[in-house]
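User: Could you go from structure to sequence for me? I need the amino acid at each position, not a summary. Structure tokens:
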């Protein structure tokens, strides 16, 4: 007798296609859910296509827009991280977040090209799976670059070119220091990772061609000129250089990103209001 609601619902095109074979089974299962609070009209259409009763389906937007604002670090946290890393806030800093295997090769290649023009530039690499830190450290050393790991910072860091984030839950603090952010999972056919943490901090965001997991979010950012999508890994270096050598363009894109996140937030409140109908009985 407990009512069930699906919150922040999303179904990719690929998942919906795979699920069609069992529509009769999904229909029976979905009939037991009283509310389907979906992220986009496309997600709503797909859940109805799988058998959800259309009169129970609503489109409320993505909770990720709200979440990106709630994870923003405080000013003192940002200053503390900069001090620990031994960097100044005005230094050119690339942060590559949630990268996957093989993407680090592309990022390091692009970083090498950037360093030819901006020798003071540094790179923070935050792999999606921190257990790969040793593998990535070996890649960096193989290129003759100084490397460190966040987990090994007892006090202030020594000299480094590349810093590897091998701890969980601190990525927004490093995004907050960035001059420009690359979001991983997007140069390979993975579907991308969430670009909103960086966008919500007012950073210029770059991602690759594979953003199927965040298609609506990526499209919103691109339409509002609040992010940049590179078609291949070969285009990453020139795009990074563009933002690092033109601080005003970087600032404007970051400002558009922050404004868009603030404008499209509000799904949390809409979700709570929708759930009221299930609680008042």
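Assistant: Here is the amino acid at each position, in order:
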């Amino acid at each position: 007798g407990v009512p069930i609601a699906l919150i922040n619902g999303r179904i990719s095109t690929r998942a919906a296609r795979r699920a069609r074979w069992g529509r009769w089974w999904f229909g029976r299962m979905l009939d037991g859910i009283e509310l389907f609070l979906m992220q986009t009209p496309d997600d709503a259409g797909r859940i109805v296509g799988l058998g959800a009763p259309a009169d129970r389906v609503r489109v409320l937007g993505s909770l990720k827009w709200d979440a990106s604002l709630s994870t923003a670090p405080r000013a003192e946290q940002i200053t503390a991280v900069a001090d620990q890393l031994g960097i100044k806030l005005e230094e050119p800093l690339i942060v590559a977040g949630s990268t996957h295997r093989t993407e680090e090769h592309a990022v390091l290649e692009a970083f090498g090209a950037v360093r030819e023009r901006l020798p003071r530039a540094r790179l923070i690499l935050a792999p999606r799976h921190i257990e790969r830190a040793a593998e990535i450290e070996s890649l960096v050393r193989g290129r003759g670059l100084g490397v460190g790991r966040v987990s090994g910072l007892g006090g202030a860091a020594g000299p480094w070119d590349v810093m590897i984030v091998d701890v969980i839950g601190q990525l927004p603090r490093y995004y907050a220091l960035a001059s420009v952010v690359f979001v991983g999972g997007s140069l390979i056919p993975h579907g991308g990772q969430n670009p909103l943490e960086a966008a919500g901090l007012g950073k210029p965001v770059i991602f690759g061609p594979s953003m199927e997991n965040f298609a609506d979010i990526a499209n919103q950012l691109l339409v509002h000129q609040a992010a940049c999508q590179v078609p291949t890994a070969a285009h990453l270096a020139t795009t990074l250089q563009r933002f690092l050598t033109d601080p005003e363009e970087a600032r404007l894109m970051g400002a558009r990103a922050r404004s868009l996140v603030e404008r499209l937030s509000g799904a949390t409140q809409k979700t709570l209001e929708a759930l009221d109908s299930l609680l008042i009985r």
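One structural detail worth keeping in mind: The first helix runs from residue 13 to 19.
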